[in-house]
Amino acid sequence: MIDLAILGLLREQDLHGYELKKRLGELLGGRSISFGSLYPALARLEKGGLLAAVDAASDPGAPGPSGHAHVPSSGSLKGELAAFRAARHALRRGNRGKKVYSLTSRGMDRLHELLNDPTPTDDRTFALRVAFCGHLPPAARLDLFERRRAQLHIRLAEQRQAGQHNDSNDNGRDHRRDRYLRSLREHDTQTIEHDLAWLDRLIAGERQAAQ
Amino acid sequence: MIDLAILGLLREQDLHGYELKKRLGELLGGRSISFGSLYPALARLEKGGLLAAVDAASDPGAPGPSGHAHVPSSGSLKGELAAFRAARHALRRGNRGKKVYSLTSRGMDRLHELLNDPTPTDDRTFALRVAFCGHLPPAARLDLFERRRAQLHIRLAEQRQAGQHNDSNDNGRDHRRDRYLRSLREHDTQTIEHDLAWLDRLIAGERQAAQ
DNA sequence: GTCATCATGTAAGCCGTTACATGATTGC
DNA sequence: GCAATCATGTAACGGCTTACATGATGAC
Questions:
Q1: Which residues contact A103 (CB under 8 A, 6 or more apart)?
Q2: Model pTM score
Q3: A186-211 pLDDT, tens per residue?
Q4: What whole-number distance in Å separates Cα of residue A189 and Cα of residue A202?
Q5: Residues with CB under 7 A from strand C
């Protein structure tokens, strides 16, 4: 999930981690991922050759690179550590704290792999796929939508079936008690139907565009 | 989350783990929890005194207890193990594989604690709370609904705000590309509004019942 | 010069999953 | 007797969170 999010966002534009997190928060409606999960993921993807740290391009943040790493070489342990870090930073980055990532061609391949993966996924992942599916060939996009539709149809059937065998012992007082349970189920059903209607609209749009 | 689910379901009726999982699956619409998570949770709750294993009551499954553990005492390691297990089973359970749990008074307290906890939670947990809120005093129930409503209002505001600064560089081709992103956001917004409308209905019902 | 924000990372731990292992019950 | 299902558990691992630690930049 996190890989899909990162690769998808970087496809549009080179970004550093902090900015990436903000964008992702907007994409998923507030509930973003945490730094503790984002930065290790970025490191992993970079190590795997799917991302590359680039010399801060014009787009994200301040433009002027002026990288010169003069190391004062103090005696303290802390000083040594800081110097080491500064040197490492100077090697890898343009000028300052930011580390801007760019999608490599392998990363692009991986993104398409993740978008086309036919195994059913959770709601969040599907949302991400929709967000990034504009880059997909129309046929793959249609597939994505239809797979999701099938999945939701199954869910809906299960939901209805579960609603069937409602309390055989229907003795008065009980009637009022699980009123909330029934309301919940009804609402869930409607939510799925709402999702299905949306998917149908998307699919109709695709078919229309195909002509 | 899993604690809430277990305690809430056991409040209605004594159940064994396997049955519990099935009910939970119905409650959450298909996507149940796994055994690998359920059984350890049951063990933990039993150890904590929130649940107690009872001698299979009349309700869940076959009624007749006839527990007699005659141990053949074979020489093999496997045999010893089996015998040990059988003995352990005989001590703890009525007659067969099933281990039926019952909610203790401490478990009941914990359930109310979980239902009344005012910290905002994820959607799944809220669904569970609604499913079990029939046991709550009306005021607590109303509180639950209104806290959720406030939470959703915030989400909705964030959503709208995120939708504001849409691509300042609105140059033609771009227009068509993130059509899917916009559709997704619109759908998300509608979903939240749908949830809010439901909550409003629930709250109205509570106020009406309060009179 | 200090405070808020930007920015990157590490460590510990929680919560859940899949895969594995075992055995009882029931229907044919 | 054999298979499907019911039933309970353990072990390994994955992904994400919180809390912690560090430092740069900019505004006042």
A1: A7, A10, A11, A14, A50, A51, A111
A2: 0.83
A3: 999 999 999 999 999 999 999 999 88
A4: 20
A5: A 16-19, 35-36, 39-40, 42-43, 61, 97-100; B 1-2, 32-37, 41, 62, 78, 81-82, 85-86, 95-97
